[in-house]
Amino acid sequence: MKFRPLHDRVLVRRLASDEKTSGGIIIPDTVQEKPMEGQVVSVGTGHINDNGDVRPLDVKEGDFVLFNKWSGTEVTIDGEELLVMKESDIMGIIIGGKSKKKAA
């Protein structure tokens, strides 16, 4: 992929959502909520402070993150739908990789 976000922006791939509930009910695509979890694909160089210094980002490529529900701008790169968002839209890094969803 030939795309690098600028400054404090991050390119994120949404994780696939569950298509079934724990009880076995299949959820159609039209009513599924978009997941708020993703994997960082690419990061910018860092946040530029008021005095011109560049602060590196806390997230890095490969991190699994949790982000705000309406964050980012959806873009299609190489046929894949991704999100470009600011690092400040990311709520946190999921330690240990992809999170496990609790049974309903």
Produce a short descriptive summary.
The chain has no helices and eight strands. The chain has strands at 9-14, 37-43, 47-48, 54-55, 64-67, 73-77, 80-86, 90-93.
Average pLDDT confidence is 79
Cross-sheet strand order for the largest sheet = 6-7-1-2-5-8
CATH architect. name: Roll
Query: What is the total tally of β strands?
Result: 8
Which structural class do the helices and strands define? mainly beta
Tell me the layout of helices and strands.
Blueprint: E1 9-14, E2 37-43, E3 47-48, E4 54-55, E5 64-67, E6 73-77, E7 80-86, E8 90-93
Antiparallel strand pairs: 1-2, 1-7, 2-5, 3-4, 5-8, 6-7
Folded structure, characterized:
- Helices cover 0% and strands 36% of the residues.
- With 104 residues, the protein is mostly beta strands.
- The chain has one domain (9-17, 28-93): GroES chaperonin (10 Kd Chaperonin, Protein Cpn10, Chain O).
- The strands form two sheets. A six-stranded antiparallel sheet has the order 6-7-1-2-5-8, with no helix packed on it. Strands 3-4 form a two-stranded antiparallel sheet.
- The radius of gyration is 15 Å and the shape is elongated.
- The N and C termini lie far apart (37 Å).
Characteristics:
104 residues; mainly beta; 10 Kd Chaperonin, Protein Cpn10, Chain O; six-stranded antiparallel sheet; two-stranded antiparallel ribbon; 36% strand; elongated
